Amino acid sequence: MSGEKVRLNTEWLCDCGGCHVAVVDLHEKILKVFEDIEFQKCPVLTDVKGYPEADIGILTGSIRTEHDRHAALEMRRTCKTIIAFGTCAVYGGLHGAGLAHSREEIMDYVYKSTPTTKTSFVPDTDVTGLEHTVLPVDEVIDVDLYLPGCPPHAHYIFESLAALVDGRETKAGQESVCAGCSRVMKKTDVASIKDTLDEVPDDETCFLSQGYICLGSVTLDRCLAPCPNHGIMCTGCAGPTMQILAEPNHDIRTEISDRMSRLTAIKSDAIINHIERSAKTHYAYAMATRMIGNKPTFLIHKWIADVEAGK
Amino acid sequence: MSNIIKIDPVTRIEGHARILLECDDDGAVSNASFCVNELRGFERILVGMEAATMPQVTARICGVCPTAHHLVAAKALDNAAGVEPPPAAKLLREFMYMGHFIHSHSLSLFVLAGPDLVFGLADTADSHNIVGMVNAAPELTKKGLRLRSLGQKINETIGGRGIHPVTAVAGGISFKLSDGQFTRLQELTAEAVQVVHELAGKTKALLFALLDKNPVLLEQLNSPSWYLGTVQGGKLNVYDGMLRPMDSSGLVQPEFAATAYREMMSERAVQNSYAKEVFLNMNGAEQMYRVGPLARINVADAMETPLAQKEFEVFKEKFGTPCHNAVLQMYAKLIELVYTCEKADEIINNPALRGETRVPADFRGGVGIAHIEAPRGTLIHEYDIDERGIVRAANMIIATQQNTAAINNSLKEGANNLLKESNDEAMLNSLEFIVRCYDPCLACSTHAIGRMALDVEVSRQGKIIRTLRRDTDA
Fold first, then answer.
1. What number of H helices and E strands is found in chain A?
2. What is this model's ipTM?
3. Does the beta-carbon distance from A18 to B16 stay under 8 Å?
4. Euclidean distance between CA atoms A203 and B175, whole angstroms
5. What's the pLDDT tens digit per position in B100-122?
């Protein structure tokens, strides 16, 4: 693109701030971005407070308070193209696990139950307008583009911005985390699901082949697979693949159990049962989105309640 | 009925924040609160999750200090399992943490406080930000940004990722470094030591010039408080050690381990904010205290590394112990930045780094408590884990929370002096500066933005009688 710069607004809603630090983490590449893009409103880099007219609007974080809702609406009003940036904006994110609990349940725990808290009242929610539940951004406004990731890797941030500036389709594909993982998938005779508490996995074989639950095959690659390449099972922080989002009866359990039962001697039912028992861990990042929440087989409240009841 | 002055910074400080001032009938400020208006409720959310994922999950509490949460969670799991990670793993974790500190303190000093240092506090130009700095002080700015980059690259190489690292696990670190990575990291740390050496003198000179031009800064913001920081053999440590309190007169109090935190600390909810206040239970009362770089420099006897020790001695000679002045947080941060660069260089050249990095750790049925010094202060995690390895209960004491009572106290004092002034702008500037001096988490962002946009409403018996507004829209 030549001539005028593309105008960008960014705004953060309920999140950890990491997505904005990720933009700074383009390191040397950020100078290249500055050449083509004019950062107008951006909580980390500039001093613009309102919502000027812009070509691109990046929203990070999910909707948790009245302020978040208002900010999202203002961004939609002023920006031609809205990007839901990061897993919180796209799927609700980790604190979307708050979906499993009522607002009152969370407040009572934090302010009345922790061992070091000496008071026994809950702060006034009227003042702050805390919403009843955590919502992904597209529950409140129309979103044009989605870039999940917790945070998205600099590679994908740069590629998406460059594609928008050049007016072309992004090269970011729909591969799963497996695409970037150097472990080798192979058929084994492992007969039961393993836990890192019992033994340390080997560094070369696919976690599923070894009997460990890894979400790499059901998670969109927006990270370049750092976890499995550093000895850690994927926890699904960039959210599910299109395959899972698009199919009403497919979800994380069914896909993993199908794949893992073929790679090992573990029965499919045992795998499904295991994932349901640790549902809060495995659906942590995306449970607040309707694309997961509306699946007919998705019984997250029951699974979590059962675990907390010690079943 | 009391009068309430409400200040809404449109920008965020650790979530959304604002300032409330309550006046009595004589017009004196009777109560001030720095309010955090965002709540995610992590302590409740973590219950029911697999404890093994806590290091990855809790990193997501803060994108500015994820490595602090990541490592303290892993340490708490070690504690629950009753295992000691092998020496190489401890060193790798500490090395990762040095990278994180270098990134965080550089961001805070050069990107966020940088405009104040370079342009002065009175400057109100549009260029009062990082872009303006590049033009006005290219050398300082570029080196500051480079140092931040070096820190983040170290963090990423060991942590697997820079933001939300993943490799610290119960019992150690989940991978081993290759020979090529060692060589590359040695280059990075050598460069970091070189750069921080070049930057330290210049930064200190700018800070002292700022203090000379604004003598009122050294007179105000001197509210006494207790302090809490971590030492190992009396020397400042950010990764591990004993918690050392100091009273407001500078007397060192008995050190305690993080595992005693339940007896030593009390949290109190406040009506208008989601951030609870925290007090130290010592000398038969609940003591208001501060954590963070200034607190750590106050409680420590010495620094472990040579250049940092030299700066430490200059600080002590000029400002004494304890130094209550919140503005000098910046100098304390600079000393820690020098220390973490030197320490990183020391660790990467330690042959013990090449050993085994992980031992099996079974924490089922255990309770784990650990602490770490986050860039902004002491951070404590506790997990109660059931027989299946699922989190049964979780509790956390966060750095910014521990400074809340001190911030409120300073705001009350500051506002009482300021209310007599009729100059709106002076009042807005000063209240903002007070908050920023305490460096609440993401105050960095507030600062990067330049000056906060503020709405101040003064009410009497429910009616607004005075409105102050500063809108910094372009």
1. 14, 7
2. 0.94
3. no
4. 8
5. 999 999 988 887 777 778 877 66
